[in-house]
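Our preliminary data section would be incomplete without showing what the modeling component actually yields. Below, a chain of 257 amino acids is followed by its predicted structure, encoded as C-alpha cells that our downstream tools consume directly.
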Amino acid sequence: MKTLVWTLVLGVIALYSCQKVIDIELNPSSPRYVVTGNITDQPGPYEIKITSSINFDQDNNFPAVSGAKVCITDQNVGLTDTLTEVAPGRHRTYFLEGIPGHTYKLVVMVGNEIFSSVSTMPLPIALDSVYTKPAAFGDGTDIVAIYGDPVGRGNFYHLVLTVQNRPSREIYLHNDKINNGARVSHVLNNDVDIRKGDVVTVDLQCIDAAVYDFYYTLDQALKQNSAVISNPKTNILGGAMGYFCAHTIRTRSFVFK
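Predicted structure:
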C-alpha cells in the first residue's frame, strides 16, 4: 500500500474547500507554521494569519498560532506598521496603505523563529469587461474576462470568480510570456452552478512573479495524482509555508440573465 505525505496549506482548504476521499495509509509529518496575508490597493486594514499545518488525516481545523509579533514595512518610504492581534492568529494593520509600485516587507516572529517575505505591488490593469458564454464542454456557463496587457514583459495576473458569494475552486492565472502587450480574453472555466439572477463577480489581481509561482504550484499540487504531493512554492523565508502578496484589485460584477 502506498503512503501519502501531504501537509496542506490553510489557504487550500479555506479558499477552495478541497476534500479528497483516499483509502490509503497515511504517514504523519511534522507540523509547520503557515503564514498567509495580502496587502491591496483598496482601503485597509489588511490581515496576516498565522496557523499551524496539519496532516492529511486530520480535520480542516488549522490551529491558530497566538502571541506572534508581526510587522510590515513599506520599503519605499521606510514606514513600519506593527500589527495588532485581533483574534488568535489574526493580525491586522493599523495605518499601512497599499500603494501600487511600492515594496512591502513582512516580518513574523514566533518565539525564537523569524519568518520574512517581500512583495512588490504592480501597477493596476483595468478589467475592461466580463461576459458569459456557453461552456465548451457540458451544459455549464463560462465567464470571459477582457483586459489589456501593457507593453513590457513581466506582468502576472490572478483572477477570482465568485457567484452569489460562492467562490470557484479553480485557480485562474495568466502571464505575458506569449502575448505581451496584447488584449486578453481570459476564459474562466468554472465549477460553480450559475443560475438566473445570480450576481457574478470577477476580481483581476495584478501580482508579482513570486506570488504567481505560489498559485501555479498550488494549482499543480491540487491537480496532481500521485502518492506524494508536494507543497506549493512559498515566498515566505525561514521555514514557514504560505504566501505574502501585495496586489491590486479591479472588479466587475453583473447579474446573470
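The domain at 127-207+251-255 is CATH 2.60.40 (Immunoglobulin-like). The first strand starts at residue 3 and ends at 4. Preliminary results of this kind motivate Aim 1 of the renewal.
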